[in-house]
Specification:
The structure is a single chain. By secondary structure, this protein is mainly α. Helix content is 67%, strand content 0%.
Length: 171
């Protein structure tokens, strides 16, 4: 048998747990966190998993994209610094700090299609890597929306067909 204090403590713990969960329909992770995961999949596929980027302008642009996504996360400056030291050790410390400071003062938020153009992501590669928050250079937003609408209609047709065949009664 629980004492009233133990029961009250248990109710408080349960309430805390329920309040911690997000509401239905809300994202559990931020868009920046999802984009970083998808950008990392693209980077691993393009350059190899955990590969150090070559010292070039293209690599610096890629690093800039990552940094601008990292700084909006909790503890983003540390994460950005660690990412730079892992993937771009050729960037001097002073320049790394300048990149992170710039991103903190004015973080850039790219649209899905603009980010796709920045990294050169094709629709085939986007589908292969299961990337959803970044567009494609060969398929714009309207084309992707139309494709999703057609896929949804086809799923609905199949669902209705299985319902009809499952509910047909014999007399």
């Amino acid at each position: 048998m629980q004492t009233p204090q133990q029961q009250r403590a248990r109710h408080i713990e349960i309430k805390r747990r329920y309040e911690h969960h997000t509401k239905v329909g809300k994202r559990t992770r931020s868009m920046a966190a999802i984009r970083i995961a998808e950008l990392t999949r693209w980077l691993d596929d393009t350059y190899g998993a955990g590969a150090e980027l070559d010292p070039s302008d293209e690599s610096a642009r890629t690093a800039r994209i990552f940094i601008h996504h990292f700084v909006v996360l909790a503890d983003g400056n540390r994460r950005a610094s660690e990412w730079l030291s892992t993937y771009c050790p050729w960037i001097e410390r002073r320049d790394r700090e300048a990149m992170i400071t710039e991103a903190n003062h004015c973080p850039i938020k790219w649209s899905a299609d603009k980010l796709a153009w920045k990294i050169g992501l094709t629709d085939a590669k986007r589908s292969e890597l299961k990337i959803t928050t970044i567009g494609a250079v060969d398929c714009n937003q309207q084309q992707r929306a139309e494709r999703r609408r057609q896929a949804k209609a086809e799923r609905e047709r199949r669902r209705r067909a299985t319902q009809r065949s499952g509910t047909v009664s014999t007399i």
